[in-house]
Amino acid sequence: MKEPIITLTKKDFRLDYYRGSGKGGQHRNKTSSACRITHLETGFCATSEDERSQHQNRKLAFNRLCNNKKFSNWLKLESIRILNDLPTKEEIEKQVDDMIERDLKNGNIVIESYTPIAEIQGMKA
User: Fold this and answer.
1) What average pLDDT does the segment 44-51 reach?
2) What pLDDT band is residue 5 in, cutting at 50, 70 and 90?
3) In the chain, what are the domain boundaries?
4) What are the residues whose beta carbons fall under 8 Å from the beta carbon of 35, sequence distance 6 or more?
5) What is the pLDDT confidence band of residue 22, given thresholds at 50, 70 and 90?
6) In what order do the strands lie in the sheet with 45-48?
7) Average model confidence (pLDDT) for the chain?
8) pLDDT at site 125
9) For residue 61, what are the contacts with CB-CB under 8 A and spacing of at least 6?
10) Distances (CA, A) of 14 to 56, 67, 72, 93, 107
11) DSSP 98
12) Residue 54 Cα distances to 13, 41, 51, 77, 93, angstroms
């Protein structure tokens, strides 16, 4: 049996219900059946207000979010990061900062400054 790499739960999403726009008459104006789903970590969002039912709109919005190219790319990258134990952006930045600090202390990196020729000529005059 395969184990899931990533599990997403209700806690990972924000569900907003609102009144849909467009034709539909009194039923449409009185019920909050339109649904907006936002993935909290990435901010990706999908909406649906096509159906009369809140449950059907929620299902449609989830399908649209899963079919979103950016969201599916994020899922792929996240699963690759988990499987290969790739470092996060913050971990890479910390490693680079540590390397630069270490090399500055050891003298491997020398920061030089120069004076432009115009300034040197101005000093001679």
Assistant:
1) 92
2) confident
3) 10-87
4) 15, 16, 17, 47, 48, 49, 54, 57, 58, 60, 61
5) confident
6) 13-18, 34-39, 45-48
7) 84
8) 54
9) 35, 36, 37, 46, 47, 48
10) 17, 18, 18, 30, 51
11) H
12) 16, 24, 8, 32, 44
| pLDDT of 78 | 86
Residue 118 pLDDT > 80? no
Q: Which CATH number fits domain 10-87: 3.30.450.40, 3.30.70.360, 3.30.160.20, 3.40.190.10?
A: 3.30.160.20
Q: How far is CA 111 from the centre of its chain?
A: 36
Residue type for position 22 = G
Burial class from Cβ neighbours inside 10 Å (0-12, 13-18, 19+) for residue 42 reads middle
Position of tokens 């789903």?
37
pTM of the entire predicted model = 0.61
Across 23-27, 101-105, 120-124, least confident range: 120-124
Tokens 């971990």 map to which residue?
91
Distance CA 94, CA 98 (A): 6
